[in-house]
Amino acid sequence: MSRSTHLVGAWPGFSAAHAMDVAFTRLGPWLDRLSDGETGLRSQWVTPIVEGMRANPDVEMTQDGDYSHYDKTPKYKVREGRTLDPANIDLGFRRAFEGSYPAFKELRRRHGYDHVRFQVGVPSPIDLAVVVFGGPAAFADPSLVEAFLRAEIMEIGAITALADPEDVVFQIESIVAIPAAGAGETSGDVHAMTGESNQMLGRISGLFAALAHGAPENTHFGIHLCLGDFNHEAFSRLENVEPIVRVANAIVERWPDGRPLDYIHVPFAAASEPPPTDPQFYASLAQLRLPEHVRLVAGFVHEHVDEAGHRALLATIERAAGREVDVAATCGLGRRPDNAQAYETMDMSRLLLQTTA
């Protein structure tokens, strides 16, 4: 199987249609799946969901925020005498899908890439609970995570009712999983609250599995593990890739039958910081236990690395993993300080694929 590229979720565009047209034009032959570019406020990942909680009748705000840093976002608590009802959580996934999917199908037809699936980003339930309620509350109260899990399962079911299941892939996204597996420096309160890493890793991988299991049979999934890219700054950093390997293996081990897992995307750069060049950083990739049908998507394409550096990194990663990998940036491209950096990263992916096929 030849290499492909993967766009994690967000990249610049005046509209969803414009963003998708740009992606098909620049990368069409090497795409297996494509989101709608997650333009506008959706480029800020879970920010629309956090803002939607202001109107949720089950919660009240404990801290407002200006989104200038990971710890400066709005936080909430459940109102006294109430519980968090999944039906009251406005995720917006179906609404965005209904707005973008018709344009995706037309652009796909026009560009002639009928094999490309539509990609829907789904933050993991534990990530949503941590961001909305804070790490201590999210890890202490399982009902908060359960409410987000139920809400997401309902949204996935609603989307699959509107499209052929073979035409959509749901990407489960997490910045919490890698710190829980023992990553180094972490922003915010997650690292201190995760406790014993094996126990927390089991809990988090179990939530991934539960989300997939709750979807209709034959629903396709992918995984995006992330170091965070809020304001193009990392949430956590790695001393080596061993935590990534632990997370990926735990997810595969617990993944349910009947819900195809198409890929796992893993990060090697920490937002604005380029990926390490030392081969020892990547050595633990040899311990990955991904089935052959699950593509490993390497997040190493970066605006501060030249072509020769990218070629060397690709060779290092594939040598360590013992398999061919797909290429990608570490996270979405919608939060670069300059849109040109996003397009340059796209073009670098194309150049690597054109000359290594």
Count of β-strands: 10
Give the termini distance in whole angstroms. 10 Å
Uncertain stretches of 5 or more adjacent residues? 191-195
Could you describe the largest sheet, including whether it forms a barrel?
Answer: 8 strands, parallel
The CATH architecture assignment turns out to be: Alpha-Beta Barrel
- The helix/strand class is alpha/beta
Word description of this protein:
By secondary structure, the protein is of the alpha/beta class. The protein has a single domain (5-356), classed as TIM Barrel, CATH 3.20.20.210. The protein contains twelve helices and ten strands. It has helices at residues 16-27, 47-52, 93-111, 125-133, 135-140, 142-160, 177-180, 190-193, 197-213, 242-254, 307-321, 339-356; strands at 5-6, 33-34, 59-63, 75-78, 117-123, 168-174, 220-225, 261-267, 295-301, 326-329. Helix 3 (93-111) packs parallel to helix 6 (142-160). The longest helix is centred in the N-terminal third of the chain and has 19 residues, at 93-111.
Question: What characteristics describe this protein?
Answer:
eight-stranded parallel β-sheet, alpha/beta, TIM Barrel
Which helices and strands appear, and what pairs or packs with what?
Layout (H helix, E strand, L loop, with lengths): L4 E2 L9 H12 L5 E2 L12 H6 L6 E5 L11 E4 L14 H19 L5 E7 L1 H9 L1 H6 L1 H19 L7 E7 L2 H4 L9 H4 L3 H17 L6 E6 L16 H13 L6 E7 L27 E7 L5 H15 L4 E4 L9 H18 L1
Parallel strand pairs: 1-10, 2-5, 5-6, 6-7, 7-8, 8-9, 9-10
Antiparallel strand pairs: 3-4
Helix pairs in contact: 1-3, 3-6, 4-6, 6-9, 9-10
